[in-house]
Amino acid sequence: MTTTEEFFNHINTGYTTKGDFITLGSAMLEGETLTNAFVKLPLKTLNRHGLIAGATGTGKTKSLQVLAENLSEKGIPVLLMDMKGDLSGLAQPSPGHAKIDERHAKIGLPFNASKFPVEILTLSEQGGVRMRATVSEFGPVLLSRILDLTNTQSGIVSVVFKYCDDHQLGLLDLKDFKKVLQFATGEGKEEFQEEYGRISTASTGAILRKIIEIEQQGGDLFFGEKSFDVNDLTRIDDTGKGYINILRLTDIQDKPKLFSTFMLSLLAEIYETFPEQGDANQPELVLFIDEAHLIFKNASKPLLEQLESIVKLIRSKGVGLYFVTQNPTDVPEGVLSQLGLKIQHALRAFTAKDRKAIKLTAQNYPDTDFYDTTDVLTSLGIGEALVSALDEKGRPTPLAATLLRAPMSRMDVLTNTELDSLIDNSSLVKKYEKNIDRESAYEILEDKIKASEEQKAQEEIREEKEKNNRRSASRRSTRQNPLVKVLTSATFIRSALGILKKFL
């Protein structure tokens, strides 16, 4: 048996599945594609998370697009974090190309151009479905971690939430939260101190500064109502395809705090809302986080710990998380160890640092007798990748340099007209477009403070009147009648006595 035949059997045996699967492409050996040596991903293991990595221009985004399309076709909804704004083309079919036909002939798969049901989401004032969350939904622990607070400051946040619960004050947006903080060290200081103990003005000031930092990055748009229902991410269209929800993040790349805030709140909400799946045959939802290094690079230690914890736990809810980044070293070790699928595009060895990163990357893949992994990592072409997945029993599949299939949808963005039409026809846009500002902590405390100020003003007026009345009474009591004054004067008395003496 030749090496090629041996490799072919090795791949076919290692990627055999009993249940449903996605065909990613066909395996390659020594730079040549082996037709029908299919690299297949079992749907059963796609909730075990994954990584798509590679240097700029090597095809990461197209791999993400292929996975999203095939998941949608299998009836699995998808959420894409679109940092660069180049994924909206999923809503339109591919125009086709001779090179695509050539690629698919090598793989052994027919090429079928297709469009997919797409929903455009937004965190900002861009067009699309507005995603919001209330401060209450975050809770004190998550909010403290996002703000990177000290233990003392976290304690104050917990007290604020407790006060609002005890007094039926809704914490909906950031102005609600700021108002309660200001009230705790201002007009309501005595009330707070009596019920919960003294609250430091310095600590509340530090918390307020961190809230303002989030506000400046657009957090005031994110916090509020109507709160987004995560169940709307799991919709299926009339043809049985899962919706591909594209969250446009082109305008918040330089706002890592807002992005981290959103990511954690979303994952926490999904974890709390979705039921336990057990050993399901396919995921309930798959999330792709493009440019994932933006999360990890700017995240605080508590935030990273929270994220790592959620990555470990959310799998049981039938949710798969896929990180897209330039280098696997961008992802913390604790998170990287949880990733079952790895699609590694080419890496460039320009510097000593690059070569070190390549060696570290190669160590993350299973050993193979057919490749020198380090060499392959630097020689892969565009649309080629090293693939390592999990089989249906959770075991690593054979490492395969893979010629990846082409996207069925357009590999370009929608025009402005197409995008506007997509947004205008969305039922979810209409559901979430209105910004609701109902009575909450801010309004209630404002009314309370006004009522208190009015009461104080009335008391001051009454006290002033009483003081004036006392002064008037005092003046009246000391003011003598003129006749009495004359009769009691010393001169009059001496004169009267003199007259009396004459008579006597």
Spell out the blueprint of helices and strands.
Layout: H1 3-14, E1 21-29, E2 32-42, E3 50-53, H2 60-73, E4 78-82, H3 98-107, E5 118-122, E6 129-130, H4 135-147, H5 151-166, H6 174-184, H7 189-196, H8 201-222, E7 244-248, H9 256-273, E8 285-289, H10 293-298, H11 301-313, E9 319-325, H12 333-336, E10 341-344, H13 352-362, H14 373-379, E11 384-388, E12 400-404, H15 416-424, H16 427-432, H17 441-478, H18 482-487, H19 490-503
Parallel strand pairs: 3-9, 3-10, 4-7, 4-8, 5-6, 5-7, 8-9
Antiparallel strand pairs: 1-2, 1-12, 10-11, 11-12
Task: Note the main attributes of this structure.
Rossmann fold, 47% helix, 504 residues, 2 domains, 12 strands
What is shown here, in short?
The protein has helices at residues 3-14, 60-73, 98-107, 135-147, 151-166, 174-184, 189-196, 201-222, 256-273, 293-298, 301-313, 333-336, 352-362, 373-379, 416-424, 427-432, 441-478, 482-487, 490-503; strands at residues 21-29, 32-42, 50-53, 78-82, 118-122, 129-130, 244-248, 285-289, 319-325, 341-344, 384-388, 400-404. The chain is an alpha/beta fold. A 12-stranded mixed β-sheet has the order 2-1-12-11-10-3-9-8-4-7-5-6.
